[in-house]
Amino acid sequence: MLSQFHVQTRSRNEWRCITDDIERIVRESGIGEGICVVFVPHTTAAVTINENADPDVPRDMVLALNTIAPDLDAFRHSEGNSSAHAKTALVGPSVSIIVHKGRLLLGTWQGIWFTEFDGPRTRTVYVRVLGDR
Amino acid sequence: MLSQFHVQTRSRNEWRCITDDIERIVRESGIGEGICVVFVPHTTAAVTINENADPDVPRDMVLALNTIAPDLDAFRHSEGNSSAHAKTALVGPSVSIIVHKGRLLLGTWQGIWFTEFDGPRTRTVYVRVLGDR
Amino acid sequence: MLSQFHVQTRSRNEWRCITDDIERIVRESGIGEGICVVFVPHTTAAVTINENADPDVPRDMVLALNTIAPDLDAFRHSEGNSSAHAKTALVGPSVSIIVHKGRLLLGTWQGIWFTEFDGPRTRTVYVRVLGDR
Predict the structure, then answer these.
(1) Does residue B89 sit at the C interface (CB-CB below 8 Å)?
(2) C69 touches chain B (CB under 8 A)
(3) Comparing C-alpha atoms, which of B127, B60, A42, A45 is closest to residue C51?
(4) What is each CA distance from A74 to A29, B128, C5, C63, C64, in whole angstroms?
(5) Do A64 and B41 touch (CB under 8 A)?
(6) ipTM of the complex
(7) pLDDT the model gives residue A1
């Protein structure tokens, strides 16, 4: 099953939890045992999995990535958002999650995060659930 | 087929080779042609693929990641392990490997590494093998 | 369907667009709805997805990664290419892309990039397309 949904981001850099959206899609797919591929079709935003408990974690992650991949004077890309492209290369465009008994097999503290690096924008997320009923 | 196994890490930061565990699970799955998704259900540990020949490579990788994602004074997360969360975002929670003729299709020098960033802890790894016999 | 092809890189660090190669393999697979796993069987090269429009983007990404993961005096690996191994850990060995109506479901600006960190070399890329006709 293939699904998509939209995320409206509000800041230049923002981590938005999308676990509930993905969980709903897995449930609607009727797939019991398989995998779920979450794919972000953008070049200045990405997707990853990290703690979804203390809101200071996504806040610290924005700070960490700004520090790891800052704007560099030597960048030439005329849109001026090469640091956003670099963060995208570091975090990556897709994650694959195991589906078991019709649910995402996530750890206790894990959430799925849409990571915006050049917002605010209206973004799209694609989800493919693959496997058996 | 879905499997899991445990890894007991011994240091704060440690790369542990888990290729043999994954290879065994693929063999037991009976899948001949498909893919294998390795997933780490933690938020301060990850999984990747890198050289498994010279032990100085995983040693240098621990050093590289400590340098790339150090503790920052501005971090607020009260557990004090935000750098471990940042390393997890950089390395990622899952890898997908091709299965061919019932074996992992890895390159000559590649091994699969469980990467601990906040050990020592007892950790879990999930493995889904998908495909045809 | 499993396929492979070769990439001849020309520089120490180089981003080479391989979208057309992957698109051709997906078409030849006859798979209509599924996923495509692109896997790089090397330990000093990786694969990712990023903008394929302005050539300054891959140029800036080489610069960004050289800055993020430089050579460190404390590295011990005797081949002297630990920074290439570190870049590989950051970018990752595989990407999973959704296949829909027999095509890669990429965003408007996205291309698939083979990222060389220790060239020039002749490299291999493995591709598995999984799903239904």
Answers:
(1) no
(2) yes
(3) A42
(4) 47, 43, 34, 8, 9
(5) no
(6) 0.97
(7) 86
Mean pLDDT of chain A: 97
Output the 3-class SS for chain B: CEEEEEEECCCCCEEEECHHHHHHHHHHHCCCEEEEEEECCCCCEEEEEEECCCCHHHHHHHHHHHHHCCCCCCCCCCCCCHHHHHHHHHHCCEEEEEEECCEECCCCCEEEEEEECCCCCEEEEEEEEEEEC
A2-132 folds as Jelly Rolls (2.60.120)
Residue C75 CB-half CA count within 13 A: 22
**CA gap A59, C103 in Å, rounded:** 37
- Residue A89 contacts B where some CB pair is shorter than 8 Å: no
Both tokens assigned to A43: 């070049």
Spatial contact of B45 and B123, defined as CB atoms under 8 Å apart: yes
pLDDT in tens, B55-113: 999 999 999 999 999 999 999 998 999 999 999 999 999 999 999 999 999 999 999 99
Side-chain half-sphere CA neighbours of A1 within 13 A: 18
Please state the domain extents for chain B. 2-132
Find, among C26, C81, C69, C22, the residue nearest to C47 by Cα.
Answer: C22
pLDDT in tens, C61-118: 999 999 999 999 999 998 999 999 999 999 999 999 999 999 999 999 999 999 999 9
- Which residues, in sequence order, are bridge partners of residue C37? C96, C128
Residues 6 or more apart in contact with residue B120 via CB below 8 angstroms? B8, B9, B10, B11, B12, B14
Tokens of residue B111, six digits: 């091994």
Interface test with B, best of A91, A96, A103, A112 (most B CBs within 10 A): A96
| Residue C40, both tokens | 């790089």
pLDDT digits (tens, 9 = 90+) for A3-48: 999 999 999 999 999 999 999 999 999 999 999 999 999 999 999 9
Q: Would you give the DSSP letter of residue A102?
A: T
pLDDT of residue B1: 86
